[in-house]
């Protein structure tokens, strides 16, 4: 069983809500891309893709020590995505 919790923080006009199946496809695609980029490092010590930029979006990935991936999809102009993901992680796993 795959658990893909997601939360829409801000809705932008024109965006379509994804179905559960589309979230599964998106997660599977992201996992594959991340696994491939993990192997592509010339130094052999890569943790995989951290940021993927498209024409109209930026996808930022935080990989935890346990292998859980936190993903934030933002506009290209967002500069605090990494710190936002770290705050989300800290708020969930704070001791």
How does this model look, in words?
The chain has 95 residues and is α+β, with helices and mostly antiparallel strands. 35% of the residues lie in helices and 16% in strands. It has 2 helices and 3 strands, in the order H-E-E-E-H. The protein has helices at residues 20-39, 81-93; strands at residues 51-53, 58-63, 69-74. Strand 2 and strand 3 (69-74) form a beta hairpin.
List the helices and strands and how they pair.
Layout: H1 20-39, E1 51-53, E2 58-63, E3 69-74, H2 81-93
GO biological process, one term: endoplasmic reticulum to Golgi vesicle-mediated transport
Subunit structure: Part of the multisubunit transport protein particle (TRAPP) complex.
Organism: Scleroderma citrinum Foug A
Beta-strand proportion: 15-25%
Q: What's the N-to-C terminus distance?
A: 27 Å
Helix and strand composition category: alpha+beta
Calculate Rg over CA atoms: 14 Å
Sheet having the most strands:
3 strands, antiparallel
Question: What is the CATH top level name?
Answer: Alpha Beta
Count the beta strands.
3
CATH topology: Beta-Lactamase
